[in-house]
Amino acid sequence: MTFLHISLLLGSIVVSAPILLHLLGRRQPKPVLFPAIRFVRETAITAQRGWSVKRWLLLALRILMVLALALALASPRVVSGLFANTLTGGVFGILALLTAAVASVLWGGRRSTPAVVSVALLALALGSAAAYFLSATWRSQETVALGSADGPVIAAIIIDTSPTMAYKYHNVTRMEEAKEMARWLMDRLPVPSQIAIVGGDGGVRVNQDRLSAERQLERVIVEGRATHLPDRISAAIDTLRKSELERREIYVITDMRENAWKSVEGSDIPAKLGLRNESGEQLPKILLQVIDVSVPDRDIKNWSLSQLRLSADSASPGGQVTLNAEVHASKGTGNEQILCELAMETQDRRLPAMRDGKLAVPEAKLIDRQLVQVSAEGSAPIQMTVKPLAEGTNHAVLRLSRPDPLELDNIYYVTIEARTLGQTLVFADSQRDGQLVALMLDPNALTAAQPAKTEGSNDSSASEPIVVSQPPMVEPTSRIGQVDLAKVTHIVLYNPKTLTANDADRLLSWVDGGGGLFLILGPGPNSPEEIGASGLVNLIPGTIKRQSRRASDDVSVVMSPVIDNHPIWTIFERPIQEIPWVNYPVFRHWDLESLQAGTTELMRFTGSNLPAMVEWSRGQGRVVLMTLPYPEPSATAATQPWSELFTTSADAWPGFALFVGTSRYLASHNKHPFNYSIDSAAILENSSSQYPKIYELFLPLGDTVRLEASDELVSYAFTRQPGQYRLKGLRARGPVLRGFSVNIDRDEMSLQRVPETAMDSALGKSNYSIAKDKEDVQSSIGEGRYGRDMAPFLLVILAMLFMAEQTMSSRFYASTKRGNP
Amino acid sequence: MVAVEQYLKPELASQIKRLDLRAQLVVKGFLQGIHASPFHGFSVEFSEHRRYSHGDDPKDIDWLAYAKTDRYYVKKFEAETNITGYIVMDTSESMAYTFRQQLTKFDYCVCLSAALTYLMLMQQDPIGLVTFDEKIRASLYPRSRRSQFAAILSQLSKLKTSGKTHLAGPLKQLLAMLRHRSLIMLMSDLLSDVESTVDSIRMLKHAGHDVIVFHVLDEAEVTFPFKGLVQLNDPESGQSVSVNADDIGNEYRENIRKFRDDLKRGCSQARIDYVPLDTSVPYDKALTEYLLSRRNRF
Questions:
Q1: What is the phi/psi pair of residue A206, to 5°?
Q2: Whole-prediction pTM value?
Q3: ipTM (interface pTM)
C-alpha cells in the first residue's frame, strides 16, 4: 500500500483524543436502593454488558472515524486492484456481519420492528456490496489465491534488442522508450517483487531487488541482430514456472517488427502458458503483456545502405578494393538526393588507445563520395573505391550523410588488409604446363616485370585481379632440391612423373614448417608401382592402387563434394552442393585408398566413391592432393583428356574456381575474411613468425578484451555490436595493429510490422494482450495488478461511520441525559 | 384511638361506616350473623327440607312435616358464626422501601391493616395480628373488643422492619397456631421465590382457612422509573448491580408483570384472593375497589 505522503498518517494520532475523552468522561452510576433487585439481576449482566459494549462501540466508532479520515487524507493506494477488491469486500463483509449482529440483538431485545428492519436492510446492503467485491476478486483472478493478492510478483520484462529498436521517434529511440516503460512497470510492482530484465543475451536472471533490476536494465542496449522474442518468452516462462511466487507476469516491450517473431510455427509458448500441466494439475496463470513501442507505419521515413559487396577483403599495399552497395528508401520518403560518403582511417601506430576512458581511434578522412537519387520504396546502386591501401589493416566507413531516424542502417564498416603475399612456386615437368598453372593463378604472371604492384590502378572494373601478389615462379620438378623454399608460401607440384626421396623429404619439411603444397597427380607416372617406387609416395596420404579409366563418352563419373563447409568453398558464391559438378564428367583418375590419419576427404568420384581431393594436415602446413590433373596436361589434353573440367570455354568455371580457391587456401590467402556479420566468429590468421601472440582487442563501444592466439589463429566470437574491432599487439619492432569489421545483416533491420497472425501463432490468441501506452497497460492488466486509490472507499466508510456514530451517540447521550436528571 | 389518625384516614373510616356491610360486604364473617355458615347442624337457622335417607340422624327428622306429608324429611340449618381474622404482615427489610412515595410498603400495609381491623371490629369479628420476616416476630391474639383496634395499632406502630422475606417458615408457624378456621389477610411484597410462596399460601388454604393476599409493591418496583446509569442496592441482601435503566426497564417491567401473574395464577388455582397493590394507589381506594369486586363475585 502506498500513500500520498506517509507523514499524513501522523494525523491518525488524533485517535488519542476520543480515547482520552472517553476515559476522562466516564461517569459513576447513581446508587439507589431497590429491593426487587432479583428481577434486575437476571438481565442486568447482559444489559450492563450491552451498555458497556455500546459505550466501547461508540469509542471504537470514533477511533475508526479518525483513522478513516487520516487514511483518506493520506490518499492510500493499494498496488493490487485484486487486493483492493478483497479489502473492500472484506471491510464491507465485516460491516455487514456487525450490522446483522446489531439487527439480531435489536430483534432479540424486542425493539421496534422498523428499527430492526432498517438495520437488517442495511446489513443486507452491506452484505451485497461485500459479495460484489469478493466476486469481482474471484472473477478477476481465477487461479491466484486471494491471500497472495497483494503479495510480491515475479515479473520478467523482456526488452526487444533488435537493431530497429534504435529507431528515433519524437527524438527518442525505441530502446529509450522501452526502458522508460520498463521503469514505469517496475515502479508499479510491489516492493518485494522479483524482477528479471531479459535483454541482449536472452538470459532470464531474476533480481531480488529493484536496484539490481535497474542496473540490469541500464546494461540493455540495442544489439546487432534481431531478437527472437518467442525464445525469450519461452525461457522466461520456464524461469517463472520455477518460482515459488504465485503471481507471475511477463512483459514484452517491442517495436513489433517481423524479424523478432520469425519461425513461430510450432511454438511451445501456448502449451507452456496452459493452465494445466501434463499430469492435469492446475498451474498458476502467467500474465503475458506485449507492450508496443513501435512507430506508426505512416510515420516511418528511413533511408538505408544495403547489399554491400567488397571486391576483396585484402589486397596488396597501394592497391584498391571496390565497394558496391545500394541505397534504399522506405515507403514514407520522397524523391530525394542522398549523399554517400566513404571515409578511411589514417594509419597511426599509437592508436587505438583508451584516453580519458574513451576509445581514441585514428582520424578518418573522406576518400570518396557519391550522390544518388532515390525515390520512395526505391533503391539506387553506389560504387566506391577504397584506395590507396596502406600496408597493414585499413578501416573505412561507408555512410549516408543524411541523418534519419534509424542510424544503424546508414553505415557500413569495412576492413581491408593490405599485405605482401608470399611467393608461389609452381613445379612442373613440362614448362608449358607450369606456365599454364602460373597463368591460372595470376593472369599477369608472364607479363609482369615486377613481382608486386606498388601503386594502385585507377581501373576499378570487375576485371581487376582479385589477388594482387607476387607472380608465381615456375620451376621444373627436378629443381626442387635447388630452389630456396624459405620465402615460398605456396607450392603447386603439378603432374610429377617421379620424385626423389630427398626432394620429397624437403617438401615435407617445408610443409611441416607451415607451407601449403598443392599436389596434382596426372599422367606423369605410368603405374602405381612407379609412384610407389619414387619419393612421391611420401607426399601421398594413402595408397595409389591403380588408375581408373573410362571411355570418353562415359559421363557417369563426376566429382562430388564430401563436406559442406570448407574454406576452399568460400570462393563459390553459392553452396558447394549447388555447383553443377555433374556437367563435368571424369574419365580417368588415380584410385587413392587407405587414407592416413589426419587426412580429410574433400571431394570424391561418384560411382567408385574414391577420393578426388583430400587434405592432409602436417605440422603447421597442409597438403592438398588431387587425383586427377587440373589443368589438363598439354600432352594428353587433346587426345586423352582426364576430365572435362578444364576447357577453354567460360562454362568450365567450377574447375577453375576449385583450383584457384585451393591455391588461395593453401597460400593462406583470404582464408579468413576481415568483414563479418553480427554474431559471426571472427578469425584472423596469426603466424607466430609474423604476429604477436597476445593482443588487446578494442571493441566498438570502447571496452577492451585480452586475446591470445591459439593454433596460429586469433578468434573472437562475441561480435554483437556493429563496428570496427581493433587488435593491438606488441612485437620487437613496435605495435602490431590488426582488426576486422562487423556489420548488421540488413535483413535483420526490416521495418516490416509483424502480422497479428504470427503473434497469435507464437503466443496463442487468448494468451496475451497488446498495449500501446501506459493507459492501455493499466486497462489491459486492470486494477487487479496496478492497484486502486482507496480514498473514495475510505470516505464512504467514513460517512457510514459518521452516521453510525451519530445514531448511536444520540441514543447514548439522550438516554444518559434522561437517566441523570 | 391510639394513633388511628396516623393509619386510618377519617374519610376512610366514615366511608367504611357508611357501607352497609350486611348488604355490600360479603366477606365471610365480617358481620356476625350475616355470613352464611358452612357448618350445617343444630344451630340456628333453618335452611331447607330434604328427604330422609339412610345415615341421617333420626333426630333431625321433622315430625311436623311427616305429619303433614306422611313422608320423612330432615331439616337442614345454616349456622350463623363469627370468623376470626388474622392480619399477617411482612416486616422484612424490603418492606421499608419507597422510592418517591410518601408511604413505604410497610406504612402502606399498616394503613391497610388498620382499615381492615376497623372493618372487622365493626362487624364484631375477632381479629389478631401476626408479624414475620424470616419467622414470626410478634402476634396479638384475636379479639373482637373495641380495644383490640388500639392494641393492634399500637403494635403496628412499634414494629420495625428487619431481616429477609421468607414466607414458608412463618406461615407454617402460623398454621400451627390457628385452632379455628380463620380469615388470613397476608400483606407482603412477596419478594421471594414464587413457587415456594404460593405453596406456603396454599398450605393455609388447604387447612381450611380463607386467605386474602395483599401483594404490596412500591410504585418504583412496579414501574421502574429509573433512567440512565444507576447502581441498585438490595437492602435485604446487600447486593448491588450497576445498570443502565433505559436498557433494562422494559425487561424489568415484564419480569414484574410475570411475577405478579404467576402469583395471581397460583392463588386463583387455590381459590385464594390475590390483591396486587402498589404504593402509588391510595390504599383506601384500593381496599374499597377490592371489597366491591369481592362483593360482586359473591
A1: -85, 125
A2: 0.45
A3: 0.74
